[in-house]
What does this fold into?
Amino acid sequence: MKAVIFVVDGLGDRPDKNGNTPLKEAKTPVMDRMAKEGICGLMNSVDIGVRPGSDTAHLALLGYDPYTTYTGRGPFEACGVGVTVKPGDIAFRCNFSSVDENFIVTDRRAGRIENTSELEKELDGLKIDDVEIIFKESGGYRAALVLRGPGLSDKITDADPKKEGKKVKEIHPLDDSKEAKKTAEIVNKLLKIAYEKLDKHPVNEERRKQNLPVANMIVPRGVGQVPEIMQFTEKTGLKGACIAGTGLIKGIAKMVGLDVIDVEGCDGTPDSDFMAKACAIVETLENYDFILVNVKGADEAGHDGNYELKKQVIEKVDEMLDYITKNISKDEVYFVLSGDHSTPIEEMDHSADPLPVVLWGKSVRVDDVEKFDEFSTYKGGLNWIKGVHIMPILLDLMGLAKKYGA
Amino acid sequence: MKAVIFVVDGLGDRPDKNGNTPLKEAKTPVMDRMAKEGICGLMNSVDIGVRPGSDTAHLALLGYDPYTTYTGRGPFEACGVGVTVKPGDIAFRCNFSSVDENFIVTDRRAGRIENTSELEKELDGLKIDDVEIIFKESGGYRAALVLRGPGLSDKITDADPKKEGKKVKEIHPLDDSKEAKKTAEIVNKLLKIAYEKLDKHPVNEERRKQNLPVANMIVPRGVGQVPEIMQFTEKTGLKGACIAGTGLIKGIAKMVGLDVIDVEGCDGTPDSDFMAKACAIVETLENYDFILVNVKGADEAGHDGNYELKKQVIEKVDEMLDYITKNISKDEVYFVLSGDHSTPIEEMDHSADPLPVVLWGKSVRVDDVEKFDEFSTYKGGLNWIKGVHIMPILLDLMGLAKKYGA
It folds into this structure.
């Protein structure tokens, strides 16, 4: 048996004045068929009333308790852009920013500079005291920063003043440990070095000539210590892959040892990359036991408050599911369809409203639910579960769960 | 958006031989309409199978884990009667009792003595070693006792022999700590001092003349160390009030920083203080973001095993809800209607039977439930939740929940 967890990012919603949601109104014959043939319920990826980020939500869906494994966004972002992080590393997300000689930020994104690979070289591989600096640009003004060395801590403040016209913040330790003090000192030294190396760099001299904002500073935030995470295969016995568009989800996948499959296009149908992803899922299942799929789009529509677009994205996902369910065998694959969090149109942000979930496959206890939406699935046999319950339920159905006791 | 948590104390019940409960039989058109317009479920204020006190239940409903914040009844009672307690204080409830010269209790409530303010003065403000004694009578034979000083502990036994004819118990430490030993010694010294000061007090000499039991001893029980509790406003961002009749609930409210609103009467309708409370709720909502309401009566009827009275109280509460829902806007106020625990007629005490709960307001996922009772709401979209889930769900609906992750 194999398994797929299919995450429609931002899927859930709150009813509008007419009691409708994009998912309720969307034409989703395949989702509804899966609801009819499967076992349904509600799910909060983290917990009831907890408004999750995509990162904490996906960790939970993969069976990891986010409260012990999620140390901050930095480690997962760094992992996502290809840094091979190690437990104990201190990782940050960074912006290249423009600052004046007093470190006052004049442009947080350095004029959305597009190519920072030459600037990256100035910082990557530096050594400050006994700490190695790993620095990788991740497309334009964004970058990941990793500190590797003995006696470091993530109990430090970040540098981001959040607003232009404010000074890049000095890093301070958040506790009395010598590790926090040392880490804060290293980052403060690094920021000075970064300014010295970047301000007069030819890339920036050229930008000055063109009246473009210079990328003469890095501003780290989202600090976290890379956690010790038991790898997915060791934990589950499954060879796992991840198909996702966003770097953060890829980072989570890499952190737990899933192979990230990049999808470029595929001859299933001509219709956008949704179908390319559907093809990739079917193909990847030939070589893997497990796939975590994330489909963005509904979340973005939610963040934009665009009801119609969210509905359309959900309908496209339904087409993906049509292709997938026609090309996999219910006797061989367990399929979990849900989201990572709701992104209600009225909130334009993540919410804690629970998600509909369906578990489809051989030998599940089919319930009476006949429609996949926020108003039907709560009556199903899965009741109201948490994200961390999904993997144990799947492993049990697959005959892979360890017995607890005798 | 604002929010009300409306607690009908002791609301739930077990079915009688005909399968009825006071709530099921009561005519409650407003509760039923709220169930129809809202999202329903079952709730255990503390946890499934846990038989809660009103104190632990209300802490949970306010979003505080009772297992970490509830240290005993003493601190909340003391707070409720107006002692400004501080984290670390050791607090007790006390009775004034009558004892003989060997400390054998002859009347646990000192003949239900009505005025103890003169006796209070003998004890309040004493200093024993480095510990300050704060003592406040709280109406008749009841009082609150607080010890304030360095190195104290609540790991001690209490003094209450529970029966007349038994000796006031010596206090013993419950662990090997020097704090517990010190605290036990202080209380033992205090009891001796209390007897010395009270036994010959003019108030008691006068009672002896009138053949009334003397209030010549205090008997502390319900010890607890005042916990560090994050204040409600800091935790939630909401300016909160509490409308409740009983001192214990007021104490909980004060402990978490809610303003306690005392209701004396109100010109809404002439019909008892139920309607006065209903008016006060509507008025208080003008100046506050959040109100915790507790309506006693159903609980008392349950403790008395009085089915008809419990039903009548519930019908009066329905009239309150009629007034309230007509005078607030569903677009501005989230309203949670439930109880703190069941008080079944057959038990005449609190039980762990879960409570019906409805969450009424804008943008909730309305379910199919059409009646508010123990037999209908479990089919609703809220499923079976715990008391500590209520505040996170409300804060999420109000757009005030913090995101966990990115």
In short: Residues 2-70+228-397 of chain A form a domain with the Alkaline Phosphatase, subunit A fold (CATH 3.40.720.10). Chain A touches chain B through 34 residues (CB under 8 Å).
